[in-house]
């Protein structure tokens, strides 16, 4: 005959089964999260909605009480919804500020009555907008009107100085405009580089040099606008990189604009100061004689450059 279960043993097994079931059930419930959300800077409409959502009234129904126990399981979803709402609000606010910055740029720098100080003050006011003002800078840099274009350059200069936009990001943003193949915009880009002079960091000036090199080396210079090429040559005068000899000589040899050719020749003595003796000798014995043949109209300027380079080499 089968052995009859002992009463005490059966009760113990039943209790153990109940405890196991409870533990399994509890494990299936999502763990409650202790989530802290910062509401700083979030519009009142959203914060009030969050407060109402988080604090039910005292007359909450049993259903609300039930949801209160299990609401933490929905916290990631609720957080996502709130984040989307805030992102949409922020996007609209930034878009409004961007349009406001564009309007201010046109009204401030489109005026012919601003003196130098007034233009600088206006640029500082607009630079504080930071990244939301970049569309205004983009449009101003590409303006045919000199005052508007210079205004955009001044705003970008103040942005760089005050770091209202990350400097590396700002430089890459502006250099990227050159690829848009828009003549006034390209002119605005290289004019900004000249305006910045030595305020650019070593890394940012190198990025600018690479952009100039990629667009003006050799025969490529014949494809560039004369005014744009002249500003690029001025930039190379300000930043005389030790590996820019071929680029500068090439601009003097190939760029069609007389102003660009003259600027490039005038840059050679300044560049020579940063070159080793062998590179200076190459300038005197190779580059300058070649330039005399290809640009006889610049003979006097080339002779002056040679005299200066020889004085440096002594």
Helix and strand topology:
Blueprint: H1 7-28, H2 44-54, H3 62-70, H4 75-109, H5 116-127, H6 134-141, H7 146-162, H8 167-177, H9 183-196, H10 202-216, H11 226-238, H12 245-254, H13 258-272, H14 277-294, H15 299-313
Helix pairs in contact: 4-5, 4-6, 4-7, 5-7, 6-7, 6-9, 7-9, 8-10, 9-11, 11-13, 12-13, 12-14, 13-15, 14-15
Say how many strands there are.
0
Order of helices and strands: HHHHHHHHHHHHHHH
Spatial extent as radius of gyration: 34 Å
Please state roughly what percent of the residues sit in beta strands, choosing from under 5%, 5-15%, 15-25%, 25-35%, 35-45% or over 45%: under 5%
User: How does the helix and strand content classify structurally?
Assistant: mainly alpha
Poorly predicted spans: 25-42, 49-57, 70-93
Overall, the morphology is: globular
Distance between the termini: 121 Å
- Report the average pLDDT across residues: 78
Q: Helical amount among residues, as a percent range?
A: over 70%
Q: What is the makeup of the main sheet?
A: none
> Number of domains in the coordinates?
2
Number of helices: 15
């Amino acid at each position: 005959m089968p052995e009859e279960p002992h009463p005490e043993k059966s009760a113990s097994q039943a209790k153990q089964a109940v405890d196991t079931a409870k533990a399994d059930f509890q494990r299936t419930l999502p763990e409650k999260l202790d989530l802290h959300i910062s509401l700083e800077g979030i519009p009142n409409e959203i914060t009030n909605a969050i407060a109402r959502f988080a604090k039910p009234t005292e007359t909450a129904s049993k259903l609300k009480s039930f949801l209160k126990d299990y609401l933490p399981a929905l916290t990631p979803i609720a957080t996502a919804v709130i984040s989307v709402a805030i992102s949409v609000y922020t996007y609209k606010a930034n878009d409004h500020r961007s349009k406001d910055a564009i309007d201010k740029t046109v009204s401030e720098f489109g005026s012919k009555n601003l003196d130098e100080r007034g233009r600088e003050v206006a640029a500082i006011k607009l630079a504080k907008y930071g990244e939301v003002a970049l569309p205004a800078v983009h449009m101003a840099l590409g303006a045919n009107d000199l005052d508007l274009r210079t205004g955009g350059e001044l705003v970008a200069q103040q942005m760089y100085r005050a770091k209202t936009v990350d400097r590396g990001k700002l430089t890459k943003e502006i250099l990227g405009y050159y690829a848009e193949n828009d003549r006034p915009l390209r002119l605005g880009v290289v004019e900004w580089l000249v305006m910045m002079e030595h305020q650019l960091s070593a890394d940012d000036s190198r990025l600018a040099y690479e952009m100039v090199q990629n667009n003006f080396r050799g025969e490529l210079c014949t494809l560039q606008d004369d005014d744009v090429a002249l500003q690029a040559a001025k930039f190379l005068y300000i930043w005389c990189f030790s590996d820019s000899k071929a680029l500068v000589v090439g601009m003097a040899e190939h760029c069609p604009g007389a102003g660009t050719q003259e600027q490039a020749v005038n840059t050679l003595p300044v560049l020579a100061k940063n070159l080793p003796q062998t590179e200076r000798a190459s300038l005197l014995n190779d580059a300058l004689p070649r330039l005399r043949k290809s640009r006889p109209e610049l003979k006097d300027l080339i002779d002056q450059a040679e005299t200066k380079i020889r004085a440096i080499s002594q």
